[in-house]
Amino acid sequence: MNRYSTYKTIVYTLLCLTPTFVMANDVELLPIPVTVEPVSTRSIVQKIEEVGKITALDNANLTFSAGAKIEKIAFNDGDAVNKGDVIAELDSTKAKADLDKARSTLNLAKTKLQRTRDLLAKQPDALSPQDVDELQEQVNLAAADFRQQEATLKDYTIVAPFDGRLTIFSHSIGSHIDASTALVSLYKLDPVNVTYAISQEDLGTAQIGQTVAVSVSAFPNQSFTGEVNYIAPAVDENSGRVEVHATIDNQEQILAPGMFANVSQQLQRGKPQLVVPQNAILANNEQRYLWVVEGNKPQRRQVELGANTNDGYVIIKSGLKKGEQIVTTGQQKLNDGNTVNILSSQPSGQPISKETRSIETGSEQTNNKEAG
């Protein structure tokens, strides 16, 4: 083939390829459909996440102050009782007799004193003042003995000191029980406490009255709200941590003392910080970036990330300004030099709708992985 034929072949080939090249460029220059959202600010709530244990606000081992045979048990194991309810009684026959005797002695002493006063009203010189004082003293002694016997009789009875729920009785009716031996325990279950420990670093921001959210494995779909009521004044020497208590309403009495609990204590609100949706973030090795739209031109912007807010957003430490429009879907197709067609603008700080996310199939899952 001569040089002229070769030249014709090259020209023909270039002419055939040129339309395809132009079409390809035309497709690439078409605006990329995207959705955008303005960079917003939030005052992020600082939290402490710890593991604690549910404890009873009040509990007591119920005992008699005397030793005798058990005559009456008014409740069953595990029953709920109210403050003032009589839980159990001992055989108090002798104590009641001693009280009756003390009552009679007191009444007799009062009668003698009253008769003497009546006599002196008629005959002022019938008795000396010393005799009257002795009779008055006998009344006082008899009254003291009566009060003592009255108190002794109470030693034979157990009364609930507060509302709560009983445990198992250690003795039954008819058995002898010694003084100070626990017959049963009583737990106050509404409210209850959650006890946990925080680090020394958090001690400066933890305060009484702050809110806690508590969850337990027995009820995974429920969250219980409480309030901090105690912060230890000193750091534990062994653990190096600070003990904290929070009170939790337990009207249904489903939180039981001894349960382990996940505790989230809300600290103070921090200063406003910039936030963007996590699915707007892309990754390039160790770098994180996103696309900012000005007019219809996207601009790649490297950013420094902070903590996740646990609701689909992430804090931006640097690289953005409040109000800038960032691409939330469609960013996978963007390159420098593209133009964009904004399909919708998501309100600041609002989750992106499923309809908007469907513009670019799979972009949400891809971006979430990359943003990590």
UniProtKB/TrEMBL annotation:
Boundaries of every CusB-like beta-barrel domain copy: 194-265
Disordered as annotated region, ranges: 337-372
Highest taxon of the lineage: Bacteria
InterPro entries: Beta-barrel_RND_2, BSH_CzcB-like, RND_pump_MFP, YknX-like_C
Swiss-Prot/TrEMBL keywords: Coiled coil, Signal
Domain YknX-like C-terminal permuted SH3-like: 274-341
Signal peptide: 1-24
Pfam families for the chain: Beta-barrel_RND_2, BSH_CzcB, YknX_C
Record domain CzcB-like barrel-sandwich hybrid: where: 67-184
Gene3D superfamilies per UniProt: 2.40.30.170, 2.40.420.20, 2.40.50.100, Helix hairpin bin
Coiled-coil regions listed: 99-152
Family in the record: Belongs to the membrane fusion protein (MFP) (TC 8.A.1) family.
Name under which the protein is recorded: Efflux RND transporter periplasmic adaptor subunit
